[in-house]
Amino acid sequence: MCLGVPGRVEDIWEANGIRMGSVDFGGVHKEVCLAYVPEVEVGDYAIVHVGVALTRLDEDAARETLELLGALDAAPGGPDRSGSP
Amino acid sequence: MRYLDEFGDPALAAGLLAEIRRTVTRPWTVMEVCGGQTHTIVRNGIDQLLPDAVHLVHGPGCPVCVTPLETIDRALAIAARPEVVFCTFGDMLRVPGSHEDLFGVRAAGGDVRLVYSPLDAVQLARELPDRQVVFLAVGFETTAPASALAVQLARRDGLANFSVLVSHVLVPPAMTAILDAPGCRVQGFLAAGHVCTVMGTAPYEPLVERHRVPIVVTGFEPLDVLDGLRRVLVQLEAGRAELDNAYPRAVRAAGNPTARAAVAEVFETCDQPWRGLGVIPRSGWRLAPSYAGFDAATRFDVATISPLESPRCRSGEVLQGLLAPTECDAFATACTPRTPLGAPMVSAEGACAAYFRYRSGP
Ligand code: SF4
Prior knowledge:
The complex is a heterodimer. By secondary structure, chain A is mainly β. Chain A has one helix at about 60-70, and strands at about 5-15, 20-25, 30-35, 45-50, 50-55. A five-stranded antiparallel β-sheet of chain A has the order 3-2-1-4-5, with no helix packed on it. Chain B is an alpha/beta fold.
C-alpha cells in the first residue's frame, strides 16, 4: 500500500472540479488525481501514491544524484585512498 | 529515463558498497523506518552485502502491521453489515483480526471491495446512493492526503452515504518512541522519503538535536537505500548528527504545502495505539470535529470490541528492531503469509513477510 511510484504525466484535465491526469507507469496507464501538484505539466514525472500525485520529480536532481554516485570508485580500496586508514 | 531502473544500476551499487566499506571502521546499528525500504533491503540482499560491522534493523513503517487490532475488529464488524459496501486496500484483506479477517467476511457474504485509491470509494458512494460506503483509511502521512481529499469531496458533493474508519499514523513520534525506549540500539535512521514529500524535512530537526542521531531522508530503490546508508555511516564515523536529504529528486524541505493544508483541515492529532507497540503520544490523525459526521466508528454502532492478539506473535519486538523475524518461534512454521499469526507476515512491507519470501525458501 505504502509504495509510491514515479510515472510520466501524459495528459491533464479537470473532472468534477478536480485536477486529474493520465500517468504512464512504465507502460501501465492510470488515471491519477493531480490536485496536490498544481505545478506539474504534461511530460513531467510525478510520484503517485494510492491514486494521488504527491510530488513532482525533479529530473535535474535525479541526474545530479546519479552523477555523484557514478563518481564513486568500485575498487575495494579505491585508488586515491591508499594513505587513509 | 524512468527514474526506477537507473536507481538499481549494479555498477553504481558496487561503487556505493565499496565506499561504505572504505568508510566503516566500527560497528554501527542503523534503522530503516519504512517497510518499503525493508522490502528493497531484503529482496536485494543489501543487508548481506554490507560489511559485518553495519547492522540494519527494520522499523515500524508498515501501515498494515501497525493498524491496531481494535480497528481491524471494528472494520470486520462494520464490513459484515448488510447495508455496507466496505472499501479497503488489497493488503488489508488478510490482516488477522481477533477471530477472522476481511477475506473471511467477504467469503461469508460481506460486500468487501478492493480499491486502488480512496477516491474510488467516493465514486462508489456516488454510484450506490442506497448503500453505505465505508473506506478503511489507514496508512502514514503519505496516504492521509488522499483520505483527506476523499472526505472533502464527500462533503462537497453531499454524500450522506460515505464514511471513513480512520487509523492514520505519523512517523516522527514513532521514531521518538523507539529512541526513548530502554535498550534502544539505533544509532542512525533512514527516514522514509515519501513521508517527507508531504511533510517536508523539518519534523526531524528536533529529533536530530535532542537525540544526537543522524537522520537521512532516503528513497526506495537499491541505490537510494545504499546512498542513505553511506551518508548515515559517514556522519557516524565523523561523530556528526545532522539531518540530510539523499532523495532530493522527490523531497523538498517544505514538503507539499497543498497536501498538508488538506490534511490539517480534515484531521487533528491524537494519541494513537500502534499494533504491537502500544499507545504513542500524538502519533495519529483522527477526523477533526467539523468532519466528525463522516466517522464510520460513530455511524455504525457495533458490539463492544475486545481485541485478542495471538499470544505467540512477537510483532512488537520485530517492529522495534529488537527481534529479527527469523528469531520468532512461529516464523515459517505456524506463521506464514497464508496463515499469518501477526500483521507483519501479511503485507509485502511487513518484515516477517519479506523474510519469508526472500530468506526462507531453498
Ligand atoms: S513471524 Fe508471525 S508470529 Fe512471529 S512476529 Fe512475525 S507475524 Fe508475529
